[in-house]
Amino acid sequence: MTILQPIIGVAANERRDAGDDMGHMAISYNPSGYIKAVQIVGGLPIMIPIGDPLSAKRYISMIDKLVLAGGQNVAPEFYEEVETIKSNDYNRERDAFELALINEAIKQNKPIIGVCRGMQLVNVALGGTLNQHTHQHWQETPVTQTSHDVSIQKHSPLEKVYGLRAHVNSFHRQSLKKVAPQLEVIAKSLGDNVIEAVQSTDPTLRFLGVQWHPDFMYNVREEDLGFFRYAVFNL
Question: Cβ neighbours of residue 203 under 8 Å, at least 6 residues apart?
Answer without folding.
Answer: none
